[in-house]
Design a protein that fits this description.
The chain is built from 19 helices and 2 strands. By secondary structure, it is an all-alpha fold.
Length: about 325
């Protein structure tokens, strides 16, 4: 409506957004990107361009604020639409390389807004090894620092202002997101559900460390993720923990969770680890040593499972 009032052209923004969603339909991680996210990324690029072109002492600010979204012109929209559509698709491959394959596994859907805008600014340089490594560092600082949960519009502006320059030149000032990132070990105790970005982030990092399925010894990668119905499950089963008076805090912590296939989880059931490990060995027809090696890919100290020693397990895996 705003575009029509300004230009007299019959441009239907919602229809155009539906076309964008259709183009993204093959990329599940983009399922929670909203139309306002797309416009915010566009506003960042439009204001960045105006800021760079203005040589006055007080150039217009780089912004992702909603009031500045409403100042976008149709020309702005058409200029950045295709680059941003492609950049969000690129962002989906960036997440896949981080072992994040579905929208429910994305730690912060909102962090895709600056990521896509940064990709547009960097162009093909975003895939250069050193540049990509810095982008990965920035990404995990945002996730594990839990920095995209609130007051994110000002962070978006600082990201688009600082990250591209730093990514291509390490001598440039560290982005605020990297400076602000902090993670304390005690936070592991309170990461208990997918509501926490760091919970999903740690689960993805374990997968990225070459975690393999315990029953079939398959890599838990993009190809196998859907086929195996992979999800986050308890290592010491919930029922066993309740029967053995394990406190809720440790029972539900990410320290007592890992990502395994539906088949493996059904085999575990509610049994003691020492019991279900024997069942897995029998069904998979493997020796204990081989299963221990598979557990190690999940940063799980197998010796603690085989003795059902939850306290020692929790302390050791927390450190790992």
């Amino acid at each position: 409506a705003s575009y029509f009032a300004k230009t007299g052209e019959d441009f239907r923004l919602n229809d155009d957004w539906k076309d964008t969603q259709h183009k993204w339909s093959a990329y599940p991680v983009l399922g929670k990107v909203e139309n306002t996210d797309f416009l915010q990324a566009m506003t960042m690029l439009a204001t960045l361009k105006r800021n760079a072109a203005d040589k006055s002492e007080r150039p217009p600010a780089i912004s992702a604020k909603r009031e500045d979204v409403l100042k976008l012109t149709l020309d702005d929209y058409l200029e950045w639409r295709e680059p941003l559509r492609e950049a969000f698709i690129w962002a989906s491959t960036f997440l896949a390389d981080r072992h994040i394959f579905g929208s429910r596994d994305v730690p912060y859907p909102k962090q895709l807004v600056p990521l896509a805008a940064i990709k547009v600014v960097l162009g093909k340089d975003a895939d250069l090894i050193a540049v990509k490594e810095r982008l990965v560092r920035w990404y995990w600082c945002g996730v594990l620092g839990e920095l995209y949960g609130s007051a994110i519009e000002s962070r978006f502006a600082r990201d688009i202002e600082m990250v591209p320059q730093w990514a291509t030149d390490e001598s440039s000032p560290l982005p605020r997101t990297v400076q602000d990132a902090n993670f304390t070990e005690s936070r592991l105790h309170s990461l208990r559900t997918r509501n926490a970005a760091a919970y999903k982030g740690i689960a993805a990092l374990i997968l990225a460390g070459s975690a393999r399925d315990w029953m079939e010894d398959k890599a838990l990668d993009k190809v196998q993720y859907l086929d195996l119905a992979v999800d986050i499950h308890h290592v010491f089963p919930q029922k066993w923990c309740e029967d053995n008076d394990i406190d809720d805090e440790r029972r539900e912590s990410i320290v007592n969770k890992t990502t395994i296939s539906a088949r493996t989880n059904r085999t575990i059931g509610g049994a003691a680890p020492s019991s279900y490990l024997s069942v897995i060995e029998s069904k998979a027809q493997i020796e204990s040593k081989r299963l221990d090696e598979l557990l190690t890919t999940h940063l799980i100290p197998s010796a603690r499972l085989r003795t059902d020693n939850f306290d020692a397990y929790f302390a050791e895996r927390r450190e790992l």
